[in-house]
Write a structure and sequence with these properties.
The complex is a heterodimer of chains A (119) and B (112). With 119 residues, chain A is mainly β. In chain A, 0% of the residues lie in helices and 50% in strands. Chain A has a single domain, classed as Immunoglobulins (Immunoglobulin-like). In chain A, the strands form two sheets. In chain A, strands 2, 4, 5, 9, 10 and 11 form a six-stranded mixed β-sheet that branches. A five-stranded antiparallel β-sheet of chain A has the order 1-3-8-7-6, with no helix packed on it. Chain A is globular, with a radius of gyration of 14 Å. Chain B is mainly beta and 112 residues long. Chain B contains no helices and eleven strands. In chain B, strands 2, 4, 5, 6, 9, 10 and 11 form a seven-stranded mixed β-sheet that branches. Chain B has a four-stranded antiparallel β-sheet with strand order 1-3-8-7, with no helix packed on it. Chain B is globular. The chains are: A mainly beta (119), B mainly beta (112). At the A-B interface, strand 4, strand 5, strand 9 and strand 10 of A face strand 4, strand 5, strand 6, strand 9 and strand 10 of B.
């Protein structure tokens, strides 16, 4: 049941160029989308998020675009730096849900894309 | 900057043994979660905890699993009788509301 899909397992980009990571989702209930970065043997680190009422959110070098009609989001990193090399996970949630409809915003993750930024 | 902490970083246990994984969420957060990632697979939701009770759980979270927030700071995941297939990275996360969740560094559980 792949509600969140990242179809590219890996991506290589030259330092200074743009990295574009893509994510597709199937569940129309999702109303909040997040990108996490993960290094080996560490937990996911929150990077940037976007609500379904927006189509773009920017934070420094990172921009997330949301196309609701296509159920597609992307993360742009400009300019890419060697320190950006990591696995990037797309995640989605809706809520609140669970008991009493108040207590959970569980995240559904994609499989991740390994980004390598080449100096 | 506040962060989620987890102990131990690595736990090795024999099949059938009980394990307790510990987490200290960020202090003003209200929602608490456990996720796991089996090697090579995606991060999967296990359980959410809010207002001192389980608010949602996945199919993975069967009777062998339990969670507790015994005091104002700790949040624990107990596996009563571990199986080989429980070997995974277990991540704790916490959140203030309907926004980003912050993850701990994880506990690597190895069941032999």
């Amino acid at each position: 049941d792949q509600q969140v899909k990242q179809n590219s397992p890996s991506l290589s980009v030259q330092e200074g160029r743009i990295s574009i990571l893509n994510c597709d989702y199937t569940n129309s209930m999702f109303d909040y989308f997040l990108w996490y970065k993960k290094y080996p043997a560490e937990g996911p680190t929150f990077l940037i998020s976007i609500s379904s009422i927006k189509d773009k959110n920017e934070d420094g070098r990172f921009t997330v675009f949301l196309n609701k009609s296509a159920k597609h989001l992307s993360l742009h990193i400009v300019p890419s730096q060697p320190g950006d090399s990591a696995v990037y996970f797309c995640a989605a949630s809706w809520g609140p849900r669970g008991r009493s409809g108040a207590g959970s915003y569980q995240l559904t993750f994609g499989k991740g894309t390994k980004l390598s930024v080449i100096p | 900057e506040p962060e989620v902490t987890q102990t131990p970083s690595h736990q090795v246990t024999q099949m059938g043994q009980e394990v307790i994984l510990r987490c200290v969420p960020i202090s003003n957060h209200l929602y608490f979660y456990w996720y796991r990632q089996i090697l090579g697979q995606k991060v999967e939701f296990l359980v959410s905890f809010y207002n001192n009770e389980i608010s949602e759980k996945s199919e993975i979270f069967d009777d062998q699993f339990s969670v507790e927030r015994p005091d104002g700071s700790n949040f624990t995941l107990k596996i009563r009788s571990t199986k080989l297939e429980d070997s995974a990275m277990y991540f704790c996360a916490s959140q203030t509301g309907g926004n980003e969740q912050y993850f701990g560094p994880g506990t690597r559980l190895t069941v032999t």
